[in-house]
Amino acid sequence: MDVLNQWAFVGVFLLLAPIFPALPIGAATLLRPKKPNVLKSQTYECGVETVGDTWVQFRVQYYIYGLVFLVFDVEMVLLFPWAVAYNQLDMFAFGAGFLFIFLLADALIYAWKKDVLVWK
Amino acid sequence: MADVSFSIALAFVIFSVISLGGALGVALNRNLFRGTIWLMVSLFGAAGLYVLLSAPFLAAVQILVYIGAIAILFTFAVMLTRSLTQVRERFTRVWANLVVAVLLFVLLIIGIIWPVWGSNPDLAQPVSDVVVSTTDLGVALVDRNGFVLPFEVASLLLTAAMIGAIVIAREADDEV
Amino acid sequence: MECVGLCEFVTSLGVSDMGLALFLGYLIGVLLVSGVPLVTVIFLIWIERKIAARIQDRIGPNRVGPFGLLQTVADLLKLLAKEDITPAAADRLLYNAAPIVSFASVVLIWAVIPIAPGFVGVDLDIGALYFVAVASLGTLAIMTAGWASNNKYALLGAFRVVALLVSYEIPLVFALVIPVMLAGSMSMVDIINAQSHMWFIFMAPVAMLMFAISSQAETGRAPFDLIEAESELIAGFNIEYSGMKFGMFFAAEFLHVFTNGILIAVLFMGGYLGLFYQFPLLGFLWLGLKGGLVYFVFLWVRNTVPRMRIDQVMRFNWFFLVPVSILNVILTALVLKLLQVWGIAPVNLAESSLLGVLPMTVILLLKDILMILFILGRISQEGRRARLDAERAHEQLLTAAAGD
């Protein structure tokens, strides 16, 4: 139950953490002047009026980075227990982890060679 | 069988409400981006449930992978289809879908949950006494008689996923 | 759940209900732990401005209070009094939540940082992973801020930021695997204890370098500060933020950099270890000194180095940092395991001795130096090839022009 004790602390922290920034923002709400004006609420675009919908050219590049990150994220997450148990592992177990990293490094090399990691 | 104290029951209820509420938010919200945010809320609730089951590693994994990577990819995908965030038309064939959904739910209850309800008292509580340290998890993952094969297959799967996604993304890029 | 520590203190004050006593105990603990970063951030902004000023050969704030110490307070008051201009079509709830989540995600990291021997918020079993998970919540906040502002430039800025943050998280976590591997645990206190005979900076300098560089990129500091470059995209994802909400993003960033400095001190430089560290105050001082040193180096780099372009930043990450960090993990794992099998390296670092860890340190250091030399060799090779290519192209251009 000690684990739960620890995480109860984290839970309380989670409850309190948003309050710390919310306090100054709340204080600002009380203290600041309120002069709403149509012009002020308009979207800012270097002082010029906005043209067209708020739509941005979305490059596939962003998605590729996110994807490669996702694969590596899962890999790292599977690697952490291996790293924690590292000092108790024999050569076979170490070799298994090694193979794991190697396969994913392989995938990275593929991505590299196919020029998908370059920001055009 | 451990005693379920009030605070633990409270935590369980809170996290369940967060999970289910988030899921409801995803389904019911018309704005795609807000739906993604609700998804993150729901996954956060699931992480909390993992903590209650004494699997803090899984909870951290949930936040790191699901919220930090998958949900971010979702938002990227949402932005890619920007025009769909302003969908306002009403969905007309609600009743047919409602009937199917209720039927599916009933089927799930009868087929999967009812047979095992109450049979294993250890399954009936939100808290687990079994604390597996990450070291044990690590050893088990690469143990010759443990999970080493699924471990390696997982890496192969990840490699395949990455290569496949790169192939698709490259074609999309070339077309543009 | 038993009632220990602060909970006993609360019960001694007369609170009878167990659950309430526990909760109040945790509350006090949280306030104590989060007091450290919150108080620090006030001085941090002053330190940052002073040092930046000195490096730029000027004085910095010196009007408000002695040596300008109260400058932060003046800034705070100013930001409080600024009008909050929310854009018309902004997504209200998300717009307001983003700065709060951003700041909260940084403060949450302090729950696992060991401030002094015996003084840690919670010594989580998964401390290192917790830190990465919480930091990824900050990415979320920035994305939300960019979207909720309903502004083309904010959205564009947010995309680039998230792509950058997400990319640099890979070498960060790979570099984090090294101390975890050496210490055999993800708990911060265990990692510090494993360094009681030799700091990890001597065993894995490359890992520390990777971590430092990646953490600079993660917080958007120069040379990676194109995120918030004032001259580019106006101000990126926080264009539409004014007043205290902007202040929160600002404070979150400063605090994040300092937190990263402290983390490097904990993970690689032994945290609160030092002469007479058993006295909590001295341990705290040591940690502050080490973290401050790393933070000073961060500031130094920030005020000296020019900004990199987004494509340079991405190329640096994917073609240098990620392969090097993966290579580092592979090599360290290999060498360490061989040393352990041959009996040169002790399996449990904390229980060994200085003499016991010395051969291991030397060999790992050697491996790192060899790796650095190899990489430098490859880089100079590439550079030479690129230069020859450029010269050849230039000559072709000249002959073509002369031939016309």
What's the short story on this structure?
The complex is a heterotrimer of chains A (120), B (176) and C (404). By secondary structure, chain A is an all-alpha fold.
Could you describe the largest sheet of chain A, including whether it forms a barrel? Answer: none
Number of H- or I-type helical stretches of chain B: 6
CATH homologous superfamily name of the largest domain in chain B?
NADH-ubiquinone/plastoquinone oxidoreductase chain 6, subunit NuoJ
Shape of chain B: globular
- Main sheet attributes: strand count, strand direction, barrel closure of chain B: none
Structural class of chain A: mainly alpha
Q: What is the H/E string of chain A?
A: HHHH
- Write down the CATH class of chain A: Mainly Alpha
What is the CATH third-level topology name of the largest domain in chain B?
Answer: Four Helix Bundle (Hemerythrin (Met), subunit A)
State the main characteristics:
heterotrimer, A: 120 residues, mainly alpha, Methane Monooxygenase Hydroxylase, Chain G, domain 1, 4 helices, 63% helix, 0% strand, B: 176 residues, Four Helix Bundle (Hemerythrin (Met), subunit A), 6 helices, 73% helix, globular
Q: What this model shows, in words?
A:
The complex is a heterotrimer of chains A (120), B (176) and C (404). Chain A is mainly α. In chain A, helix 3 (60-84) packs antiparallel against helix 4. Chain A contains four helices and no strands. The model of chain A has no long low-confidence stretch (mean pLDDT 80). Chain A has helices spanning 2-16, 19-31, 60-84, 91-113. In chain A, 63% of the residues lie in helices and 0% in strands. Chain A has a single domain, classed as NADH:ubiquinone/plastoquinone oxidoreductase, chain 3 (Methane Monooxygenase Hydroxylase, Chain G, domain 1). Chain B is mostly helical. Chain B folds into two domains: 1-88 and 120-129, Four Helix Bundle (Hemerythrin (Met), subunit A) (Up-down Bundle); 132-176. Chain B has helices at 6-28, 32-52, 56-80, 94-116, 134-142, 148-175. The longest helix of chain B is centred in the last third of the chain and has 28 residues, at 148-175. The relative contact order of chain B is 0.09. The model of chain B has no long low-confidence stretch (mean pLDDT 82). Chain C folds into two domains: 1-81, no CATH class; 86-328, no CATH class. Helices cover 71% and strands 1% of the residues of chain C. Chain C is built from 13 helices and two strands. A two-stranded antiparallel ribbon of chain C has the order 1-2. The longest helix of chain C has 50 residues, at 354-403. Chain C is globular and about 95 Å long. The relative contact order of chain C is 0.10. The model of chain C has no long low-confidence stretch (mean pLDDT 84). At the A-C interface, helix 1, helix 2, helix 3 and helix 4 of A face helix 2, helix 3, helix 4, helix 5 and helix 6 of C.
